[in-house]
Amino acid sequence: MADIVLKDVSKSYGAVEVLERVNMHIRSGEFIVFLGPSGCGKSTLLRMIAGLEAVNAGEIHIGERRVDNLPPSQRGVAMVFQNYALYPHMSVRQNMSFGLENIGTEKGEIARRVDDAARMLEIGALLDRRPAQLSGGQRQRVAIGRAIVREPQAFLLDEPLSNLDAGLRVRTRVELAQLHQRIGTTMIFVTHDQTEAMTLASRIVVMNNRKVEQIGTPMEVYSRPASRFVAAFVGSPSMNFIPVTGIETGADGLRINVAGAQLATTIRQQPKDKGELTLGVRPESLRVAQDGAGDITGQIALVERLGDRTLVHVTLADGSNVVAEDEGKSTLAAGGPVSLKVDGTATHLFDAAGLAYHAD
Amino acid sequence: MSSEAITRPAENAARLKGDRLIDFGGLALTIVTLGFALMAIFPVYWAVVTSFKSETEVIASGIALWPSRINTEAYEHIWTNTNIGIWYINSFVTSALITAGVIVSSAGCAYALSQLDFPGRRLIYVLILACFMVPMQALIINHFVLMAQFKLLNSWAGIILPQLIVPVTIIVYKQFFDNVPREFREAAQMDGAGHFKTLFRIYLPMNWGITSALAIITFIGAWNSFLWPFLAATGEATMTVPVGITQVKDAYGIVYARQMASAVMAGLPVAVLYLIFQRRVTQAIMLSAGVKG
User: Fold this and answer.
1) Under 8 Å CB-to-CB from B9, ≥6 apart: which residues?
2) pTM (2 decimals)?
């Protein structure tokens, strides 16, 4: 196991820049998730660490070694591909052995490692089968097994759950988390699914538009998003954004005017750029006031009943659309008025550049 | 709703009742196709039948579709009075080496063109495509002069080398490699396999069907090849079977039964090969059909 350090790593294809000066320090044993929308550069970054893409500028270090000029097989990393890339003409055992044979590992050692990995992943009965004879979940395990037998310093996983159906995806996610706990090797996992990121990661690297927006634990990223992009991308339903019409300084923090109401928040820092400001509040912090005495009122546009809770889509006086939460047994119906209570201690303010200011 | 859709239930009902509807169009097409098939097979049949006739029966007037008595004299003559054994060895060795050479060089070339990024890649591919426009016959004098200068005439190498240029095999392989997801190559890279290992351990075994189909069709082509071996091998010791059978002559002119027997013997290995690997040959023809133009 080893730390992975990226220093000013950049990548471009001709004139098109796909990654811009990425810096990162991944500590040994961490489960890091690269999260971002399609085209943000997360897979490219993973492939650069793997050695499948050349680095145009910057350095990549794995442990004590600088590896950005080394071929993939000499970097001490193993990769699990999105479509698994299991060699179709080889049995599971041959798939898992191939990499070890290439580096001249003894046959006895290969057999031991393959058997150990097969036992760990419960694929012992599948070792003589071909990939075509396996289910999606079994292929996934074999792909992980192929990576495990190499005993790498880090696992690189490129959207490995995206080809699985919903149920299997959840099960495999749990198994992956358990596997990480068991072997403790550094894992870098690429996904655009924020649920996967939140549930698996020790730390999440949120990427957007060629850059790293934020690196933090799942709760840091969720509770204190570094930018409006992060706030919108992480969390489902997404954070609500309401245009701010004025700010006053109160005793406990800023008093923010939105949609004809004034909200008391615990945001203490004055935004540097006071141009176009937006208030951010997550649906669970914007709750339906049962007694009608909320902070802000609006018209119900849609009610979504999820069983344990109800999502209420509300149009505010200024035309903003927000999603608020109500209890599971909510009797609200579309078309009626509603009063919403804002938790001022869970509000965020975003300036025109997208920079965030959080309630304490 | 279309009229077809309306009549279908009626047809189905008729079938259920046991009334048979005759597809006259299909029947006519089958008869015509069968006619063409008979026209194609008849010369082969005639050659085989003639080879088992006595020469007297061959030149007798009228058409005898079956020999009055099975006569193997023609085969005995060919086997004992010609070098057909040597010609078979020559044919087998040259065809096998041409096949191996074409498959290995074409797969390697196609892999490089498909998977590697190097300057001039597109130009090389265009030049290979352009090779289609130059028929073998147009190059034959160049080949002859070149082989003569290398002193390779009347040798296996002289017969083999000019026949190793088969652009269609390169193109078929390239099309296949282009369609292999790049993750396989990347997985092989992560597994520490170089390009040769990736080609021979991953890409080719991934679909042996293509290789075996191309190998069989190349072997058949090399076995049947006449013009170049005819020019390159002038001595009987290096002749291949199709060239050698032109030597089957009699002092008094052509003996048809022997001519036919030698033709049957020349074609027999290929026919057997075709019967064994019929599906693969069809597959190879279909694979190359799209690129032969």
Assistant:
1) none
2) 0.80
